[in-house]
Amino acid sequence: MKKIYSIPLVRGLVWLVVGLVIGIAAVAGIRAALGLDATGRYLFTEHAWVFGGFVGTLAFIATHGVMGDWFKWWRGQDTPEHHEDPASWLKYLGPSLDHKVIGIQYTITAIILLVVGGTFALIFRTELSFEGQQFLNPDQYNTLMSLHGMLMIVSILLGIAGLMNYLVPLLIGAADMAFPRLNAFSFWIAVPAAVWLLLSMPLGGVETGWTGYPPLSANPAKIGQQMFFLGVFVAGWSSVLGALNLIATVARMRAKGMTAFRLPIFVWASIATSLIALTATQLIGLSFQMVMFQRLFGMGFFDPAKGGNPVLFQHLFWFYSHPAVYVFILPGLGVVSELLPPLIRKPLFGYKWVAMSSFGIALVGFLVWAHHMFTSGMNEYLRVPFMYSTLLVAVPTGVKFFSWVATIWKGKIPTPMPSAFLFTIGAIVVFLMGGLTGPPNATVSTDLHLHDTYWIVGHFHDTLFGGFVFPFFAALYYWFPKATGRRLDERLGRLHFWLMTPAFLVLSSGMMRIGLLGMRRRIFDYDPALGFENMHVTLTVAAFLIAFSIAIFIYNMIVSVKEGDPAPGNIWNSRSPEWQVPSPMPAHNYETPFEVVGEPYDYGLPGSKYVEFMKK
Amino acid sequence: MRHFVIVGILVVLAAVGAYAGLDASGLMPVAASAQAGSATTAGSIDWMWNLQVIAMSFLFALIVVPLVYALIVFRRKQGDTSDAEHITGNTPLEITWTLIPLVLVLAFAYLGAYSLREVRRADPQAMIVKVHAQQFAWSFEYPDYGGVISDKLYLPAGTQILLQMDSKDVIHSFWVPEFRVKQDVVPGRVTELRITPTLPGEYKVRCAELCGTSHYSMENGVVVTSEAEFIAWAQEQQNALASAQTPEGKGELLVKANGCLGCHSITATALPTAPTWFGLFGSSVTLEDGSTVTADEAFLKESIHDPLAKIVKGFAPIMPAYSNLTDEDIAAIIAYIESLK
Ligand SMILES: [Cu+2]
Ligand SMILES: [Cu+2]
Q1: How far apart are CA A414 and CA A498, in angstroms?
Q2: ipTM exceeding cut-off 0.90 for this assembly
Q3: Which of the listed residues A197, A567, A584, B322 has the most CB atoms within 10 Å of its CB?
Q4: Residue B341 has what pLDDT?
Q5: Residue A616 has what pLDDT?
Q6: Model confidence at A90, in pLDDT bands (50, 70, 90)?
Q7: What is the distance in angstroms between the Cα of A504 and the nearest Cα belonging to chain B?
Q8: What is the nearest CA distance from A188 to chain B, expressed in angstroms?
Q9: Is the pTM of this model over 0.80?
Q10: What is the pLDDT of residue A68?
Q11: Which ranges in A203-309 belong to alpha helices (H)?
Q12: Interval between CA A507 and ligand 1 midpoint (Å)
């Protein structure tokens, strides 16, 4: 018992529950003392639950151990710069300061949330297969659909944080991130966030979709809505602090000679992403916090009866949530550009243009948010400039596609194609589908038809699968040997790809097709007169195939950690520094520092090198 | 050079094939308004859409064909361990594929603005219909026809309609797929939408903004008829309104106009949102706290005036208060409920 309690994650979760109870008791007690109603529809009042969640978050973070060094500094004690991690897998449940351990913690948590969110999708997808009610009621459907959206978003944020944490210090030759303790804090704060998101289910659920628009999200009947807001608010901290850390790391800790245009392209993408996350996340936190206060304290920010404006919420919300899309996809596009050169033995075509296009996308991405609001009732004339700015995103995105094709052209295409390569190509094709189905939504007149339909659902699943899911898998197949010293099984990898890709293309194109014909998004059941049943059955089958392929992947990971083919060295024959040292990566990265002496992707240039290790 | 010629030909073939295939598969529902138009009426939504399908088909082919071609043709030969040719870029090419898309984007931006202007084109003679949205039903009011209220949207073909829309509770969105255009309905203000129906027939207005539990079923009928038929219908409604002498007749009209049937059913099978009214009058109702009451006039009156005062067991407290209904109205509604057996 004591042994289990000594695991930091377990200890933190125990105290999270204790904190929740204390917070609830405090509010209920005060209310009772004031003669107010202390109990509510869900045992206690909304105020009690929210305050309990707040105390629970603090209790988790204070007892888990991730603030241990800070507490000691506060008391005037010194602590060593590095901490040695326990040798067993238990280090993954504790407050490690090693960026590689934290990167893996992020990645595993992302996969767990991907599985939970994906399972929710399978459940409501099955409900949708046939006309009429199957086994859910509309409220359960709405809750699962809303949480599917938000859990996937959190999963993606953790997934990119995992890649960036693990890779960026290795790629730039740093021993760790700039602020290792802040790094651990950024990860662990995401754990209570996930707990609150899931707790929204027994407390009445969420009925608004992930966008949480008021006045619907101010409906007092659903306390779950508040826990949802609280969860997202807390997760936002993880994003902001992680981004800050990454920017500081790249700014201050690059190896000698690593000038701007000798940075690996993935690092460029990571900075672009982090700049957005650092400056925009506050807006979703703010907008959700305002709804929380509207509900808790009667502040009528978005309540027309009190002079508030519901459309204002949408502006605040999308000011983050559009750029957030680029937070999700830029690292993935960076992975595509990073993997193509070593796999086909040819330099990245137009390196500078590719690097700058990430910044172009990030910059323009800040000026397009109201394209989600063409039908919202905002000022009619504002729709035109937002249409222009949104269409403009096509230019830097196009540069990326053309550069990828030019890179592959006359490359040495590997035979047989490794899974990492298959997923890279899959990413390009799927993201292209997402990219091409975007401009019709950016054009106001056609968007008046497309908005809030299944077409949009298909479109953004294309962008997120092409921009995140496929590159994420490519990166895992490529760098798994770096982290573990063993390869993932290639046969299972190819099976994973050839199951998932066709199934996904059927799923997203099918969604778009019925969307055009009148299928609205976020509906629990559809009008039989539309004749969509066959398509919905097909979509459900496709969704299960995707889930099955991902189950194969997870099985592959679990088995390969112990039994995969050993891969101690530079298996990809890459120029990149992390492959010049043995795998798995040594605990403190590079024993001797390296110097950058050439271009990162000069494959095919005899005698050239990217990095050179300094003599001791 | 040979490669480029082959790829060029394949791109054109693939683009034409993709467009033809998409076009033939019937992407859009039937077009029933002037705003929807057709692929050949310049500025309409279907015209704009058709241009976009052409652009999508072409750009898809432009990327995917050379990609797939390269994957097949440039495969590594058995036993070859060399690297590929050292090509790092080509600045004129980069500038070209930045500038050409930029020009395309500008062209589409212009066309998009032009199309928006055509779709918004206002007719000062437009007939006004007031649209009232609430969880989970629509109702339609015709100020030009003595304030007739209907739960079906009747419209004359060939006349521009100006919809003035308001919401009682949360945000809803007015969308008839066959008309193409869509507009949110926001509480606390009036939003407008112009539609010129062209094709007589029966359609449905489908709420496009998630508005709560039964959002999925927030669909009301739309009937487009000839001008003459529309006027005949409106007259008949006006007469019915004037001559709804029996209380339950008046109650039925009120119930439809106030969207009660978005949540309540009038048959033996209840909707998931709210109790059915069938056989309600005089029955005994179990409340949330476990007590029971008889559904008499007093209880029903209270339930309508102050819905949160007593909550029926098994249902959420989501019913809005209807302060606009007079005592007389409520008596009529109760008479109507009493008649449902
Ligand atoms: Cu957007
Ligand atoms: Cu709705």
Answers
A1: 17
A2: yes
A3: A197
A4: 80
A5: 65
A6: confident
A7: 17
A8: 33
A9: yes
A10: 83
A11: 224-252, 265-297
A12: 21
- Phi, psi at A93, each rounded to 5°: -100, 5
Say how far residue A543 (Cα) sits from the centre of its chain. Answer: 20
Q: Structure tokens of B276?
A: 């059915």
Domain positions in chain A are: 1-65, 95-613
Phi, psi dihedral angles at B76 (to 5 degrees): -65, 130
Cα B185 to ligand 2 centroid, rounded to whole Å:
10
Q: Check residue A396 and give its pLDDT.
A: 94
The residues, any chain, with a CB within 8 Å of residue B16's CB and separated by 6 or more, are: B57
Question: What average pLDDT does the segment B78-103 reach?
Answer: 91
Tell me the pLDDT tens digit for each residue of A22-77.
999 999 999 999 988 888 888 888 899 999 999 999 999 999 888 888 888 899 98
Q: Taking residues A460-464, what's their average pLDDT?
A: 96
Residue B252, by phi and psi: left (phi above 0), alpha (psi -120 to 50) or beta? alpha
Could you tell me if A315 and A373 are in contact, meaning their C-beta atoms sit under 8 angstroms apart? yes
* 3-class DSSP state of B222: strand
The percent of residues in chain B predicted with pLDDT above 70, rounded, is: 99
Query: Which residue in the set B71, B82, B213 is minimally distant from A138, CB to CB?
Result: B213
Of the two residues A163 and B243, the one the predictor is more confident about is A163
Residue A5 structure tokens: 């309690």
Assign A105 a pLDDT band (cuts: 50, 70, 90).
very high
In the structure encoding, which two tokens stand for residue A261, read together?
């245009």
Collapsed DSSP state (helix, strand, coil) of residue A101: helix
Q: How far is CA B24 from CA A27, A384, B17, B18, in A?
A: 64, 32, 10, 10
pLDDT, tens digit (0-9, with 9 covering 90-100), for A308-338: 999 999 999 999 899 999 999 999 999 999 9
Indicate whether A524 pLDDT > 90.
yes
Residue of A51, A53, A49 lying closest to A40 (CA atoms): A49
Q: Taking residues A563-575, report their average pLDDT.
A: 93
- What is the DSSP track for B110-140? HHHHHHHHHHHPPPTTPEEEEEEEETTEEEE
Query: Are β-strands B127-134 and B161-167 bridged in parallel, bridged antiparallel, or unpaired?
Result: parallel
Rounded CA separation B231/B156 (Å)? 8
Cα B221 from chain centroid (whole Å) = 12
Q: Which residues contact A71 (CB under 8 A, 6 or more apart)?
A: none
What's the distance, Cα to Cα, between the start and end of chain A in Å?
49
Domains of chain B are: 2-75+91-119 (no CATH), 127-242 (2.60.40.420), 244-339 (1.10.760.10)
Q: Residue B109 and residue A209: Cβ atoms within 8 Å?
A: no
CB-based burial of residue B293 (10 Å sphere; 0-12 exposed, 13-18 middle, 19+ buried)?
middle
The lowest-confidence range among A506-510, A553-557, B265-269 is: B265-269
Ligand 2 centroid from CA A610, angstroms: 57
pLDDT for B211 beyond 70: yes
Taking only the tens place, the pLDDT of each residue in A4-28 is 888 889 999 999 999 999 999 999 9
Question: What span, in angstroms and rounded, lies between the C-alpha atoms of A465 and A461?
Answer: 6
Q: How far apart are CA A235 and CA A195, in angstroms?
A: 11
CATH fold for domain A95-613: Cytochrome C Oxidase; Chain A (1.20.210)
Q: Three-class SS of residue B33?
A: strand
Nearest Cα to Cα of residue A496 among A432, A434, A560, A539: A560
Between chain A and chain B, how many beta carbons pairs sit less than 8 Å apart?
265
β-pairing verdict for B219-225 and B201-206: antiparallel
Cβ of B216 within 8 Å of Cβ of A523? The answer is: yes
Contact predicate B218/B206, CB 8 Å: yes
In angstroms, the first-to-last Cα distance of chain B is 83
Structure tokens at A252: 């201050």
> CB-based contacts of A74: which residues, under 8 Å, 6+ apart?
none
B76/A415 CB distance under 8 A:
yes
Contact A304 B189 (CB under 8 A): yes
d(CA B170, CA B187): 6
